[in-house]
Amino acid sequence: MDWSSVGLPQIQQKTQMKNKGIVIALMLLAFGAHAQISPTSIPEKKYAVVAKTKLGISQLELGNKKLINGSLTQLEVLLSRSLSKKFLVEAGIGFSQFNGNDVNQGEYVNYKNNNLRFPINVVYSRDLSKPVSLVFGLGAYGIYYARTDMTGYYTGSGSGVNAGTNALLGAHFRVSEKAGFRIMTEVQRDLSWISKPNEVQFRERMNALISLNFLVKL
Fold this sequence. Notes:
Blueprint: H1 3-41, E1 47-62, E2 66-82, E3 87-104, E4 107-127, E5 132-150, E6 154-174, E7 179-190, E8 194-196, E9 200-217
Antiparallel strand pairs: 1-2, 1-9, 2-3, 3-4, 4-5, 5-6, 6-7, 7-9, 8-9
């Protein structure tokens, strides 16, 4: 009798079982690795484009002597980058227009300022529910006075540059993973004066605005 032929089927059976065990073990390892990696394998989108429309009231201050009340319209486009789950920074460019009126030397006159704005904000958000977050921010901005029309005081282009600070408060609403919108309130204040000939000084003393923001992640 050939004893080697008797033990061969048993050896083959053990080898097959061992191979099956290895395959099953590898499948379990692969499944476990996939379960751990797949949720984080999709990188979080850190950048977003933010478009802001703002309406509100403003006070144009003339040489610490006179306040002109008026309306304010602003449009901004900013690039936002997430610093963490709760903080982000946003910066961009915008346009601002002040319109007001007053009586000067017995005449009814209009006042208008057209400005280019360069805002930068640091924004903090705290989740209130799954789709809604409370948003708070502080920032600063630069201003280029492209066109100023203050009848009886000063009228001209390229009136000067200025800077200011602002604070933001509102709510963010998530529409999808890539899009959302904010309803915000904002206050702004110029830090210094624009000085022109004949000792004319002016600045936007205080702005109070309601803002609607649209966000799309890149």
